[in-house]
Amino acid sequence: MNDSRFATRSELIGILVLAVFLVVILPLCLDVFRLNLVAKYLTYAFVALGLVICWGYGGILSLGQGVFFGLGGYCMAMFLKLEASSVENTKIQSTPGIPDFMDWNQITALPFFWKPFHSLTFTILAVILVPGIFALIIGAAMFKRRVGGTYFAIITQAVAAILTILIVGQQGYTGGINGMTDLRTLKGWDIRPDHAKVVLYFFEVGLLFACICIAQLVRHSKLGRILVAMRDQEDRVRFSGYSVANFKIFAFCIAAIFAAIGGAMFALNVGFMSPSFVGIVPSIEMVIYTAVGGRLSILGAVYGTLLVNFAKTSLSESFPELWLFGLGGLFIAVVLAFPNGLAGIWGDYVQPRIGKLMGTRKPKAGWTDNSVADGAPAE
Amino acid sequence: MFGDYSIGDLGSIFVMQGFAGLILFSVYVLMALGLAIIFGQMGVINMAHGEFMILGAYVTWMTSNFFQSYLPSLFSGYFFLAMILAFLASGALGMLVEWVLIRHLYKRPLDTLLATWGLSLMLQQAYRSIFGAREVGVELPQWMLGSLHVTDSIEVPINGVFVMGLTVLITIGVAYIMFRSRWGRQVRAVVQNRIMAGAVGINTAKVDRYTFALGCGIAGVAGSAFTMIGSTGPTSGQLYIVDTFLVVVFGGAASLLGTIASAFSISQTQSTLEFFMSGSMAKVLTLLAVVGILMLRPQGLFALKVRK
């Protein structure tokens, strides 16, 4: 792999193919309803992308990505909810001008932490900073004390449980189990009609590619190589004089911020946010998207997310009983048989054949030189 | 928050809440014992632990139904048979799972987490398909109903006392097996140094399999005990899995005593807080305290000094 390059040629082709697929093919082939579904799936792709950096490269399995997805989503939803609860819209409430669920819970004034969310600038900053700082605190507390591996996974899981219980319990401030529903406009621009959905879809795809580019930059920089080295031989990196904890914190924060952007886009695209995207179950499901796509493949994360979600929608529509068996089986199969996911299958079986057909020998892509099975983090 | 109660009332409240906490403590200990063996000793993250517990609960339910229809005269004693069956069923399933799944993943602890999560999803759906989505409750024999009146303001339910007695017995049994028997010595030898243990003639693969099966079997017994204080549904196991992991981690993963101490402190904190605030806030505060303490003291309450 060459130093300081943004992407190898085959990766560049891969990014272009994905761009054509998302920007041209899908919008042409799907109606607006289905396109909106894709937009919903792609919000999870942000999370999966973050997990590639954090888990695939950094070796830090976080089972609490739903927390950051949720924080980002809730920040955005709070802004949209405030806009939807203007005084004219909420005249019938006993206290006009506050969100409906607060009125139902006998809250008469807007809580202080809601007030800044009247401003879009603040909201956008909050979407990135709130989860980022939260991840920084968790990461600093854990990694500085050299807690990692399974312990970290369990503690992030506990954090996901705590936040879910908190959101559900504090109904008056958060909308409870139903979440924040009935989100309408963004700065006066209605997000519900079809053309808005299409615009939002393209906006989201743009953001996704920005994140892919950041991930590529991280991966091909010295930073990315230190992450991989750390995953495989943490002590050697530490003895070489690098601060392992800081690199881990960085990877965890990037993953958190990506997840938060996904969450904010979710609130915009789907029009609501609820605790069912925060807890343990969705958090682990997000990990499986990454695992299916290939935990070392940036583009694989996007394909994995789309594939699992398409399978989920179509299977649970037609055979609801089979879906959990399918998902469970997928977890086991990916872990046992295909630890490098779709990207591994592509790199091991498909790409060599294509190379043969084309008559050229392509250089092997990045994922084959650090496959998961031999490079498992030492505990 | 204490202002409205007299001293006597407060005393009774603490005793009653303390007792409710003790029942929660028993469930935590029973679940955590199995997990302390599987996670603490073997290092396998078994996310399907709750489902092994629920298997025990369903076995107990089926046994009670069987006794009700065919052997009503022996109904008062069905529970003891049910517990043994629950242990065997969960243990057998555990052995199968170890053979099919876990033994390939000992070197990748994070991947066992994903694989066993997949297993838990499949088991949940299997329970839903076989037993239905509705929660089932076990009919308790007559002698377990009712409560003991200690004073006129304090009363304790008999089934709670029974579960607690059971917990004590099982804990002593597990401690004996792990620390006093020849087999327990082999388990600890394999955990501490697999290669050396193999070199001195211990069949490590077999020890792994039986250790995993024992942990799952204890989960089954936990499920069996659980039926006496709550109803069983396909997803009941998932409710407890995070708490149980926290109990084990908080206690210091390799320490049996630590597991018991942490189960005690977590359950007592939660049930005492529950009286003064909503259940969800009590849970949030308890979990936050646990996570906070773990951040300051990652090795847990009782850390074994082991050279890694």
From TrEMBL, chain B:
One of its GO terms (molecular function) is transmembrane transporter activity. It is found in: Cell membrane. It holds the Pfam family BPD_transp_2. It comes from Bradyrhizobium stylosanthis. The keyword Cell membrane applies. NCBIfam families: urea_trans_UrtB. GO terms for biological process: amino acid transport. One of its GO terms (cellular component) is plasma membrane. It is a multi-pass membrane protein. The chain crosses the membrane at residues 12-40, 52-71, 77-101, 113-131, 158-179, 212-233, 239-263, 275-296. This is Amino acid/amide ABC transporter membrane protein 1 (HAAT family).
